[in-house]
Structures are given as C-alpha cells and as structure tokens.
Write a structure and sequence with these properties.
The structure holds 2 protein chains of 2 kinds. By secondary structure, chain A is an alpha/beta fold. Chain A contains 13 helices and 24 strands. Chain B contains 11 helices and 21 strands. The longest helix of chain B has 18 residues. The chains are: A alpha/beta, B alpha/beta.
Chain lengths: ~475, ~475
C-alpha cells in the first residue's frame, strides 16, 4: 500500500513541466551588468522623459546602498547582479494592423499557452496586453476601452503619452527605496502595464496581461501601475508561464495600485513559472513587490493569487488601508513541490477608521519543498474599529517538506479586533478511506480533497482563471498522498 | 563588597567589566561554573546585547534600560537579619520548602536541607557545584542557548550563584519548592542569577518562583534557569513576577525533556517594569508533554515580552501553549510563540494560542505565533487575537443590574481565569485568583501579593 502511494506520489508530483518550450525570436540585447550607464542606456533606448531618468538613477543609487534581505525563510543562492542582461526587446517591433501580421512563432507561443489573441477569444471578452519579455507586442480591444475613457497600455507607452499620470502615481505606493528588489526594479524596469480607470467607470471586461520570460539570462523587471479613480471598478488578471531552461532567472516585478474613493480593484494572479527540475536545478527566482493603496474612503482592493511555479517565491501583496471604511482582501494558494521554496503572504496596514481586512491563505507543500506564510497585520493608533481576520492553513504531502507560518500582529488601537488562526495538517487517512470506499481512486480522492481545501481561494478567481488555476493544481499535485 | 560600573556602550562596558573582574569572579566560583565562561564570552563578543534590529527582540529594545551606573557584587555578602522576618509571613494554606535568593545570591540564612527527603538537594548553586561536580559537568550550560542569545551568554560569563535543585530517581516531593527572589538595595543594582533544576526519572517536583523588589532602586536582573526532566519525570514550574516599574528583568528558562516526561510552566506577570521571558522547550524524547501558560497584566509604562520556542525534536510529543494578556494605560506587550517540528517528528501535536485585551487607545500589543514544520503527520494549530471586552457580554451583565465597573472587572477576570485555572496547586491557585481580581480592581499593592510575605508593612507603594 505504502509503495503504491509513493508511486502515485512520484508519478504525479514528478510531472514534467507542461509548458516547457522555448521560442526562438530575435532579441535586442544590451551588455550584461548594471551600472549608471546601463540605467541611462535603458532610459535612452526607451526614449523616456527626464523625470524617468532621474527616478531610475535615484533608485539605482539607493539600491547600491542596500543589502539583499536575509529574513525570509528561504535559501537563496548568491545572485550575481553583474551577470544579468537588464534589457532585451524583440528586434522587430511589429506595427500591427491585424492578427495575421503577428510573428508566426510568437503567435504559436501564445497559442500554446492558450492566450486569447484570436477572434474567438476576443469574443470571450478579454482584452490582452501581452508582454513578450520586455516590450509590449500586441494590445487588443484598445478602442472599446478608449470609448469608456479607460487607458490600458504598456507602461512605456504611458510614459510617452500620459507622463503626468505616470509622474503623479509611479512610486507613490511602492517607493523606490522600499526594499532591495523594489529599488532594483525602479532602476531598470523594462516594461509592464498601465491602467487608468476614470471616475465612475465600471470596466466592462477583465483586463489581462500575460507575462512570459523568454530570452536566456534576461532578468525581467515588469512594472505595473493601476489607478482606479472615484467610483470605478476593474478586475485585472495576471498570468505567467515560462519556457524550461537550466539557468536560474531573476524576476523582480513591482505592482502598484491606487484605489480612490468608493473604487474597487480586483487583482488576480496565476503564477506558473518554471520551478526547476526534480533535482531543484534551474527555475525562476520570483521576488515581487505588490502593494495597493486604498487612498479614498470606502475603497476596496482584493488580491487573489495562485502560486504554483518558480524555484523561489518572495512575494507579499499588501494593502495599505488609508481611506476610512476601506477594505482589503487577500486570497492565496501557494503550492510547492520538489525543491521549490516559497515565502509569501500579505501585509494589511490599517490606517483609516473602520477599515476591514481578510486574509485567507492556503499552502500546500510536497516533495522536498519549503512553503512559508508570512504576514503582517498592523493597526495604527488612529485606525479605530479596524477589523481583521486571518486564516492560514497548510497541507503537507510527504514527510520531507516543510510548512511554516510567521504571522505578525501589531495592534496600536484598543478598538481593533485582530484574529489569526492557522492549522497545519496532512490529508486525513480517514478522508481517503471514505473516498476509496465509494469507489474513488486514491489519486482522485487526493485531487478532490486538495481542490476542496483550496476552494475558498479558487472561488475568488474570475471564471477563465479558475479553470486554468485548477489545471495548474492538477499538474502540480493531483493525486499526491502524504 | 561591590563594584560600581557605569554602563554606556552596553557591549563594550560589559566586556570591560568582565575582564576587570574575571579573576575575582573565578576565585569565588567552582571550576565547573568557571569552565563555561570562555565560550559564553566568545558568544557574547559575537552577538552582543540585542536591540530591536534583532528579529528575536524586535518588540523589546532592552539596551536603554541597561544604561546607567550600577552596582555589581561578585563576592557574596549576606544581608542583615531582615531575612528572618520574611519567613514569618508564610501563608499557612500553602506549605512549601522555601529559600530566599537576594540579588542573585543564595542567602546563607536559608535552612531547609534537614527536612527534605533523602538524596534531594535544594540549595545554593555554588554549593551544588562543589558537591556534585560530575552532574554539573554533564548538565551545566547544556540547555541554555548562549550561542543564540546575548543575554544568556552574558549570564554564563558572570553567573556565580542561584538555586540548584536535584531530585534523584523515583522521588515524589510532598511539598512545593519555593524560591523567593528578592531585589533589594539602596543603590541601583545589576545582578545575575543562575538556577538549575534536575529531576531524574520517575520523580516529581513542583517549583514555585516568586520575583520581588523591596526598595525603590533601579534593578537589572539577568537570570537563566535550566531545567532537565528525566524519563517519566513530572515538573510543574510556576513563576510569579511582582516587581516595581523600575525593574528590568530578562529571564531565560531552558527546559529539556526526556521521553514520557511532563513539564508545565506558568508565568504570571502581575507587575513588572520591563520584563522579557525567554522560554525554550526541547522535547528530546518520545511521548513527552509540555504545557506552557502565561498571564500578563500590565499598566502604566510597563512592558512584558514573552518569547517562547518549542522544539519538537522527537516524534509522538505534545505541546500546549496559552498566553493571555490585559494591557492598560500606556502598557505595551509582545508575544512570540514559535513551534518547530523537526523532520521525522511524526505524530506531533502542538497547540498554541495568544489572546490579548487592550483597554486603552495607547496600549499596544504585538504578537507573532509561528509554526515551522518539517514533518507531515502532525496536528499543529495556532491562534492569536487582539481585541477588547465583548460588548454583548457587557450588555448582558449591565442588563442584569451589574455596574459598568463591576462588569468590566468580571469580564477581565473571566478572561484571565483560563490561565489561572491551569495552576495545579490549589492553595496557590486560590491565592493568585484573589490577587488577579484585586489587580483588576486596582487594589493590588505589588508586595502584599507575595505568597510568603503578605504583610502590608513590608510593602512599598507602586511607583
């Protein structure tokens, strides 16, 4: 019986990375390494205005002074920042009028990933700003959005066309000096998305960006900025898959969200970058700073993430609840397998009165992986009647993996109610026995139990994403037996 | 005979102090205790005194409280006859074997040895080290994590005396052993105390530790207690802190358990200036069971930080942890509970909970309940809450004609009682229960709480 179980475990957790392929597209590189000249060169190549260059240089100088953080529960191999190419753009930047003109190779890549670039997918109501390595290639549905006054474009484009908006909000949530990787990103970010939803507009479709790391040795430094003006609503999707390769890749992104009065932003992520092979070789290093500022009263931000990929994940989507009555939510599923390491969680910073936050985190670890939840709930002195509830559960599949929980609660106000609950367990043998009895194979039973376990989070995802997320979970874990 | 030293640069000054007085310290201490000074000094040199940049001390920066001019005594001189008076006010309901430790030194006036069961040692650490060198060789400084913590290393450097308890195989002590730690003196005093408790297999001991201050001077107490529980041993360790607001105490409690042993600790902090309790448990044998409880009631500018670490090193062990706190005025509190379940420690059960009530807008609480788990067949849970008194419960009581003040006291008392209820010594439980209630009513004079010394004439007003 035990052997059977182990076999199933091996079969399933040993699944090869499904999206491992590599498309051969000509790239435009700048030399490896990082110094002020490289920062200037990036800015110059992107034809940026003066304020951007200053922003980058300030960030670079700050980064030089900072040290790599050592507090996460992660073993990070030393990263040689001078061995990274900080800018790579597809050489032929196509000026596209129709889908036929898209580079067939690129098109094939997207097709393999199932990115809805073609007509059918357009009918499905998804506008896509696809980022191939660093430069936006194709944007759909722009006109429809433009009618509503919604701006959805690459950040490079936004810097050219809406410099005032960018200048006003860039770095206003995640300052260039926020942390080591934020400073690095601020100095060298190549591209990303920019979204502006004007007052009173409810974005009619899910906005989505697919990131894809493509060129060997190219660090990706995306920068996303979302501004939701008063009374607006937007749901934003971010999803990633990456080709299989041997060398580790660094990825340090920043996502900034500003939510004004009574506006609501829903940000969903499915992350499935190459996690390294079964021996823990290769894989993406994913060091991301994500933060939303609920600036206006009655504003709301909701983060949902499904993290299944990357060799190392270091990511804490946070909510700064500044406006009175603002609401922050965080739903997360983090799955680690083989030698993956994840240190992820959230920060809820209550500044305004009557602010509320909810944290639901589900960790699943298998193989020899380490999965940590790290979260902070802080209630400032003036945040009367702040309310928080956190639920962090860990599920262990296998006896060589680790599941850790590091919550921090700082309450500086006596009317605050802060609650934290966490459990760690393995799949109950009685549950599996129950399923077996009813003719469900052990493999299916585990799939069923894991899916049930993460249901609270998956339910938060938009429909299209929920399907993809469930597929990813199946690839990673379905059938694992503890 | 004492040495006065001005402490400004904490680490440097303590190193100087050690080097200047090393000969004196070592001349008055047995070899087994002197043997560890070097390794502790090296660790201290490396770690220094942690400040709030140290993750373990994030919420408690003790450095500022260590600064100033302090008297250190490296040669024991017993105090005057007052000690005899303390003995008289023993509470009749609770029979104990009790000893006094004054400023870290075991008082020579203690007389308990005669009435103890055969083979049991309950006396001075220094004497114990001379009498049982081989036991000290085996245990002393083995559980204390001097490599991890600067305060523990500092204690190892300077430690000379304290209490040593040895309970041989198969002895069940009829009465609790009580240690009354007193800080007293006209000048500002910094002291080190080192205790060791060894309860061999199949034995049982209950230990009651009371921390007091008698004079309105500034005190800095750095104490380390190592507890070793043999197979099937049963230990209860109650610590009540009742010190005035000028006291800074860093108390390390390091417990190592063998198979099937059962250890309970309950730290009740009724009154303390700056209190930091480092409680480390290592469950180093199968089927061991640990119970950690704590209650802290703070007001004014007090600060209480309970830092606990439970190391499940072997399979089939269970730990229960519950800490509760009520913070009033500008009091601040911190709690860290870390449960480590090592690889292959299967069938571990670990439950951890920390609940807090903030009574004012200025009170603050930081809590970190943490789990670090490397085995899969485990049941671990932790919970933490920070809140205030339940409005509905308050309404319920008010609607039945109970005044607001009375209802408040009742609710706070009910909140705290869960921890008090874990005390297994009936007389002590009753005593603490009364004291906690008084504390909530604002009637508690910090000294009349003492189990031994309930005489109001000895007490000092809270300051």
């Amino acid at each position: 019986m035990t052997d059977d179980k182990n076999k199933i475990l091996d079969d399933v957790t040993g699944g090869e990375y499904k999206y491992g392929f590599y498309s051969d597209i000509e790239m435009d590189y700048i030399p490896k390494g990082l110094n002020e000249d490289v920062v200037r060169l990036i800015s110059e190549k992107k034809n940026e205005p003066e304020f951007m260059l200053e922003f980058r240089l300030k960030a670079y100088r700050q980064w030089k002074k900072m040290k790599m953080p050592d507090w996460p529960h992660l073993k990070i191999p030393e990263i040689d920042f001078d061995d990274i190419i900080y800018y790579a753009a597809p050489k032929k930047k196509p000026e596209l009028k129709s889908l036929d003109e898209v580079d067939p190779e690129l098109k094939a890549t997207f097709d393999k990933l199932g990115i809805p670039l073609d007509e059918q997918k357009v009918l499905a109501g998804v506008a896509v700003d696809a980022v191939m390595d660093s430069v936006s290639v194709k944007t759909t549905f722009k006109e429809t959005l433009a009618e509503k006054g919604i701006i959805f474009c690459s950040i490079s484009e936004a810097i050219q066309e809406y410099p005032d908006l960018v200048k006003k909000y860039l770095g206003s949530v995640v300052s260039y000096a926020d942390n080591y990787f934020a400073a690095l990103n601020s100095a060298v970010f190549s591209d990303g998305s920019f979204v502006y939803i004007p007052k009173g507009v409810r974005c009619p479709m899910e906005l989505s960006t697919y990131f894809r790391i493509n060129a060997i040795n190219t660090g990706q430094f995306e920068r996303t900025l979302i501004v939701a003006d008063d009374d607006s609503y937007v749901s934003y999707l971010e999803g990633c898959t990456a080709p299989q390769r041997d060398e580790n890749q660094l990825h340090a992104a920043i996502v900034e969200i500003v939510v004004m009065e009574r506006a609501e932003v829903k940000y969903s992520t499915v992350q499935n970058w190459y996690p390294g092979d079964k021996e823990g070789k290769g894989g993406i290093y994913n060091f991301v700073t994500k933060r939303a500022l609920c600036k206006g009263d009655y504003s709301k931000i909701s983060w949902t993430q499904v993290e299944t990929g990357s060799a190392i994940t270091w990511k804490y989507p946070s909510c700064v609840l500044k406006g009175d009555h603002s609401v922050g939510e965080f739903y997360s599923v983090a799955v680690t397998n083989n030698y993956q390491q994840a240190d992820t969680g959230t920060k809820m910073i209550h500044l305004g009165k009557n602010t509320r936050s909810l944290i639901v985190s589900k960790g699943v670890s298998a193989g020899k992986s380490q999965n940590s939840y790290r979260g902070l709930v802080k209630v400032a002195k003036k945040a009367s009647n702040a309310r928080n509830f956190s639920q962090c559960d860990s599920l262990l599949l296998g006896d060589r993996c680790g599941a850790h929980t590091f919550p921090y609660i700082d309450a500086h106000n006596n009317s605050a109610i802060v609650e934290h609950e966490a459990t760690t367990s393995k799949i109950g043998e009685d549950q599996i026995f129950y399923c077996n009895q009813r003719g469900i194979s052990t493999e299916d039973a585990v799939g069923l139990i894991v899916n049930g376990y993460v249901k609270d989070v998956i339910n938060q995802l938009p429909m299209e994403f929920a399907v993809e997320a469930q597929k990813l979970l199946q690839i990673s874990l379905e059938g694992s037996v503890g | 005979m004492s040495v006065t030293k001005r402490i400004e640069e904490v680490k440097e000054n303590y190193k100087e102090l050690f080097e200047e007085n090393r000969k004196l310290i070592e001349r008055h201490s047995p070899d087994v205790i002197n043997n560890v000074r070097n390794e502790c000094f090296e660790s201290f040199d490396l770690k220094g005194i942690p400040d709030d940049r140290d993750e373990d001390y994030k919420y408690t920066n003790i450095q500022p409280f260590l600064k100033g001019s302090f008297d250190f005594s490296f040669v024991h001189t017993d105090t005057d006859s007052q000690l005899e008076d303390f003995f008289k006010c023993e509470v009749t309901a609770l029979e104990t074997y009790s000893v006094f430790v004054i400023n870290g030194w075991y008082s020579a006036k203690n007389k308990v040895a005669e009435s103890l069961p055969d083979g049991v040692f309950f006396g001075s650490l220094k004497e114990g080290a001379i009498k049982y060198p081989e036991i000290f060789e085996k245990y002393y400084n083995k559980a204390a994590r001097f490599e991890r913590d600067g305060f523990t290393a500092l204690n190892g450097m300077f430690a000379q005396d304290g209490v040593f308890i040895y309970v041989p195989d198969g002895v069940v002590l009829d009465k609790p052993l009580q240690i009354v730690n007193i800080l007293t003196g006209d000048s500002d005093i910094a002291a080190f105390q080192r205790n060791m408790v060894i309860v061999e297999q199949n034995s049982q001991a209950r230990i009651l530790v009371c921390d007091h201050t008698l004079t309105p001077s500034k005190f800095v107490m750095n104490s380390v207690t190592e507890v070793f529980a043999g197979e099937n041993a049963f230990i209860e360790y109650y610590n009540q802190q009742n010190q005035h607001n000028l006291t800074t105490q860093v108390a390390g409690l390091f417990i190592e358990q063998k198979a099937s042993s059962n250890v309970l600790t309950n730290n009740i902090t009724l009154h303390a200036g700056i209190a930091r309790n480092n409680i480390f448990y290592k469950l180093n044998g199968e089927n061991a069971e640990s119970h950690l409880y704590g209650l802290y009631l703070s007001d004014k500018n007090q600060h209480v930080d309970n830092f606990t670490f439970i190391d499940h090193a072997k399979p089939n062990c269970t730990s229960f942890e519950l800490f509760k706190g009520v913070l009033d005025d500008r009091a601040t509190g911190a709690f860290t509970g870390r449960v480590l379940v090592r690889e292959d420690s299967q069938n571990t059960n670990a439950y951890q909970s920390n609940n807090n009530i903030l009574l004012t807008d200025l009170a603050r609480m930081s809590t970190r309940p943490q789990l670090e788990i490397y085995a899969d067949d485990v049941k671990c849970s932790h919970g933490a809450t920070v809140g205030q008194l339940d409005d509905e419960a308050m309404f319920y009581l008010r609607s039945r004609g109970i005044s607001k003040e009375e209802a408040r006291v009742l609710l706070m008392y009910a909140f705290a009682y869960e921890v008090i209820d874990k005390i297994k010594v009936e007389a002590l439980k009753e005593q603490i229960r009364e004291l906690v209630e008084k504390r909530f009513r604002g009637e508690l004079d910090k000294c009349d709480f003492c189990v031994v010394c309930a005489e109001p004439s000895n007490s000092l007003n809270c300051f």
